[in-house]
């Protein structure tokens, strides 16, 4: 009886040793990978897009250079992904939700130069989007613009801008709208966003969490979301259950892309990485971008699909908010405008 | 390990061998896996000034979050103490149909990723969920309130109580109880005087662990909490908030406060236990 | 466990009235129903919403398969490490009296109360590019964070106390009389441990390992910090579940989640089988 027990223990150990050896071999083979591999560290909503684009790009690269290339994807919250790259995740390219996150990588890890955003066209944003409203079918609460969101009895769903990069655009869009109103000032804007967040019953930690709260849990009258996310939610989760409402004013939401210089030099993948990002501006890629509900930068493609994307006044972070660094410090840092909304409420 | 010397550290000598090697191994492993990493947390926290530490780790908002976190964890641990004990008792002592299956279910809260548990519980207790739809009309809100947080924490902590009490209860032979009964004690007295004292250390351990686990829990709570500052914002979320600002020191500051509190509570419970053991 | 002959011919004096027994079972079942069964049922009902073939498709997807492999591998490494540690720690804490014992026990419990996010972050602080050992590791091209090694470490940390914690209360309850008897009869220390202690703690040990294993496979928070989320390479099952859920692919997300639940049930089945095989032995122990 004891012998059986011992034999079992021995077997287990042998299995463990085997597993360890296997891991060693696996790691070894990964290191000695023959085909060049690009690691694209991106944020959540671009998953479907890059899946399609990677197929397109591998074919393009093969045709152009005769070389096989494999592309690995990593997705997560934008800020978390940026931290991973800072902490040593060896991304060849980063494609994140806000330029601020890539700025942080540049500043904290020096893996890429500070002027990275000037290296590609359109502020290194091959696609853009804006913030819109998703309302329940037929728009029962008659929500048409930002001022409808602060009305008594309207429940607004938006994620926590402290934990979600995407949600910062939502907040800034509301702030920008208030400032643009006649007689608008920093003071009225502060009051406006305070009122708006008083109407928020649940602050999810990420954008997709908010969408689920709105769609699956049936909570709230309006979801403030990126346009591409709103389209995706409608098409994936309920074609006849929701309407998209475009406000008069919103922000130009520019997800930014860059190669990570030190990593591509280490991996000797610079040429492929640069081509990977440049090809995002090709007409084919821009069509894919539209398919994934982002707004394209190329004029021709944009014209072709103009019905899909209503025109509206778009504020920019650089002109209207003094750049990300300032916006971050004023609104989202500890004790900033956003925190004050709740701290005032607590007293 | 020094076989001859450890005796100095011993309170009372024991004839059993292996003290040096087991203690040595424990300490080495503990140092590598737990102490070294935690030292990194403390050193990061220590790098920030005292004022900064207070501003982040002891802000009003953080204190509200600690209260909520420790409060809901306590409620959950107590609930698990009562029901976990009953579940363990029933599983060890009684025969009923489907017992094996029920026994198998106990470990599930560990296996199910916490995020999945959170999503499942939210979908059950939200206003349009299986249970939520019956509670909502009566004005009882569970999802996105502290009640919801407690429910998630009960879920993650349950196995601790059941699984620590179960083996001891099993090991506790019936002979003592028979003896007590033959000496004229009624059933209730037997359980109170004989069974409960025997399983009490295990029960406290289980409850303490359930509590400790609940304090740090993030994945399952985040979906059901609602995350409203001062109302339903848990302390681990504040850690994430700090990280989002690339403020690692701020994150470790909150972690340090939580760790210090948990460590103190655990230490008190462990000391009480060893004191109780010596008295008996 | 139900095969316990000692309980069969039970004396009325060591049991409760039928009504009380019935009531306790009912309370236990009702509690488990609300707190465990319902969430589980909702997971399975979501998973099977589009039928069995959709379920099979989602768990045989290449990314899912690689996540399953990684999860099993991680558990396979982390659990034995903690098993050996657990036995050693339980031995010294429960069989000896020494200064600082409460302190040591508390340190063993500590990983439970560390928030998963921090459990991951500590390894970033140590082995990340800007961590204590980061520059050295980078210079030698060793990958710990955002690779399997980091995931194993985070998992080991999170599941660290399970085996020890499971054993300590039992071994304390058992005392060391039997071991001392064996020693006085001339058995060596190792023999005593193997022939006396191990059989006594076997079931507790098994529980500890099972819990440890279940938690190792299900851990989300800590692993999420050190994984890097590279599809098909460093995604474990819980992370894969999150990804699918965030893609609004609820069926696939819950399918993979239900698979984790099933894995837990399989380990439990193994436990039941062992208990059944050794039923007579258990019974013998209880008669002594």
Brief sketch in words of this structure:
The complex is a heterotrimer of chains A (347), B (280) and C (288). Chain A has helices spanning 2-31, 47-65, 78-86, 99-109, 121-124, 165-180, 186-198, 207-215, 227-237, 261-267, 270-278, 283-291, 299-304, 317-321, 323-332, 337-346; strands spanning 37-43, 70-76, 93-96, 127-136, 156-157, 222-226, 242-245, 249-253, 256-259, 295-296, 313-315.
What is the radius of gyration of chain C? 23 Å
Cα-atom radius of gyration of chain B: 22 Å
User: Whole-number average pLDDT of chain B?
Assistant: 86
Tally the helices of chain B: what do you get?
13
Judged by helices, strands and strand pairing, the structural class of chain C is mainly alpha
Q: How far apart lie the N and C ends of chain B?
A: 33 Å
Assigned CATH class of chain B: Mainly Alpha
Total discrete domains of chain B:
1
Main sheet overview of chain C = none
Q: What would you note in describing this structure?
A:
The complex is a heterotrimer of chains A (347), B (280) and C (288). With 347 residues, chain A is α/β, with parallel strands linked by helices. Chain A has helices spanning 2-31, 47-65, 78-86, 99-109, 121-124, 165-180, 186-198, 207-215, 227-237, 261-267, 270-278, 283-291, 299-304, 317-321, 323-332, 337-346; strands spanning 37-43, 70-76, 93-96, 127-136, 156-157, 222-226, 242-245, 249-253, 256-259, 295-296, 313-315. In chain A, strands 4, 5, 6, 7, 8, 10 and 11 form a seven-stranded mixed sheet that branches. A four-stranded mixed sheet of chain A has the order 2-1-3-9. In chain A, strand 1, helix 2 and strand 2 form a beta-alpha-beta unit. The relative contact order of chain A is 0.15. Chain B is mainly alpha-helical. Chain B has a single domain (49-279), classed as MetI-like (MetI-like fold), CATH 1.10.3720.10. Chain B is built from 13 helices and one strand; from the N terminus they run βααααααααααααα. Chain B has helices at residues 19-47, 50-57, 60-93, 99-105, 108-111, 114-125, 132-135, 146-171, 174-182, 187-216, 219-225, 235-244, 248-279; one strand at 10-12. In chain B, helix 9 (174-182) runs antiparallel to helix 10 (187-216) and helix 12 runs antiparallel to helix 13 (248-279). By secondary structure, chain C is mainly α. In chain C, 78% of the residues lie in helices and 1% in strands. Chain C has 15 helices and one strand; from the N terminus they run H-H-H-H-E-H-H-H-H-H-H-H-H-H-H-H. Chains in contact: A-B, A-C, B-C. At the B-C interface, strand 1, helix 1, helix 3, helix 4 and helix 5 of B face helix 2, helix 4, strand 1, helix 5 and helix 6 of C.
